[in-house]
Amino acid sequence: MGSWDGLAKKHQLRCVVPDKFGMGGSGAVPLEYRTQTWLDMITALLAHLRVQHIAIITHSNGTIYTLNTMLKLRHILHPTKPFVAFLAPWVHPSHSGSLTALSLVPESMINKLPSVAKFMNTKVAPMFMFSGQIVNSISKSTLPDAQLESSDQEEYDPELKTMFPDLERLIPQVFMEENISGGADEALLCLKRGDKCTWGLFADTDEAVSMVVCQERGLVLAAKSSQNEVSHEKLRIAVFFGESDIMIGKKGEKWFGQCWQSQDIADVIAYTSETVPNSSHETIGSPEQGVFTRLFKEIALSFG
Predict the structure, then answer these.
(1) Is the separation of the CB atoms in 56 and 77 below 8 Å?
(2) Residue 24, beta-bridge partner list
(3) How far apart are CA 276 and CA 88, in angstroms?
C-alpha cells in the first residue's frame, strides 16, 4: 500500500485503500449487509476526507463492491471524465470453472479458514523458516526490470526495490497478526454461499454491467434534455487480466470481457482490456508490473 501511496503522490493524487469488513482494523459485518454497509462507509469516508470525486481502481472480489458503487454512487466519479479500472476481476466459479472444489466445501469449514491460516503462518511456518508460504500469493511480486516499459521504470522508486526482500518476509507476518476473520465472509460472498448472501443491487456481473449501461444512457439523455453544455466523456472502463490467474482462469477472463463486449456499449462506455505479461491474480498490482504507474498517470490527467 505504501508503494501505491508514494507513486500516487508523485502524480499529486491521494490513494485511499479502505479495509474490507472484518479485516485489519475494520469490524465484522454480516453477509446480508456487506454491500450496503460498504456504500454507507464510502459515503461517510469521502465526506470525512472532504473529497467530492474519485477514480476507482479495484482488484479481485472488489469487483462486487465497485459495481455496486458505480450503480448507487455514480456521482462520486469525475463529472466529465469518469474512470474505473478492474485488476484481475472476480468471476463466479459457475462462469470460470475455477475453484469448483472450494464451492463444495461446507460453510462451517470455510468459516474456520482464517483461524487455520493464522495458526499455520504464525506458529508452524516460522519453525521451518517458511514464514508466509501459505499466503505467499500476497507477497510474491518480483519481476525482472525488463517487464516494465522505460517510462514506468523511471517513475519506479529505486529505494523501494531494495526493500522488497524485507517486505516479502514481513507482509504475510503483519497481515496474519491483524484481524483476518472477515476473510471467511469474503469467501462466502464470492461464492454466493448462504441463504443471506447477496451481491447487493444485482445477482451477477452480467446483470450489473447491463444496469451500468442503462444508467449511463440515462445520464446522457438527462444532460441533453437539460441542455448542459459541459462536455462529458464516456465512462472509461479499463480491465487488466493476470496472465496466469488460477482464480478465474481463461474461461472466466473471457466471460468477464463478454459481459461488456457482448452489448452495444460504445455510445456510452469506452472499454479496454489487456493481459499483463508474467502476472498472476495476486501480483498484477505489484509496483514492478507498472500497471499502477499507468493508471495514476491517466487519472492525474483526468483530474488535472
Answers:
(1) yes
(2) 179
(3) 10
Q: How far apart are CA 17 and CA 87, in angstroms?
A: 14
Assign residue 27 a region (left: φ > 0; alpha: ψ between -120 and 50; beta: otherwise).
beta
Cα dihedral 244→249→252→254 (10° resolution): 60
Contact 302, 81 (CB under 8 A): yes
The helix/strand/coil state of 275 is strand
- Nearby residues of 231 by Cβ (< 8 Å), 6 or more positions away: 80
Query: Residue 129 and residue 116: Cα distance in Å, rounded?
Result: 18
C-alpha cell at 254: 473471457
Grid cell 502524480 — which residue?
A: 11
Q: With helix as H, strand as E and coil as C, how does 218-274 read? A: HHHHHHHHCCCCCCCCCEEEEEEEEEECCCCHHHHHHHHHHHHHCCCCCCCEEEEEE
What's the Cα-to-Cα distance from 71 to each of 10, 51, 175, 265, rounded to whole Å?
31, 19, 31, 16
Per-residue pLDDT reduced to its tens digit, 152-193: 444 555 555 555 556 555 555 555 556 566 777 888 888 898
What SS3 class is residue 181? coil
* Burial of 140 (C-beta count, 10 Å sphere; 0-12/13-18/19+): middle
Give the other-Cβ count within 10 Å of 141's Cβ.
21
**3 state DSSP class of 89:** coil
pLDDT tens digits for range 122-159: 433 333 333 333 333 333 333 333 343 444 444 555 55
φ, ψ dihedrals at 286, nearest 5°: -60, 140
The residues with which 272 forms a beta bridge, in sequence order, are 238
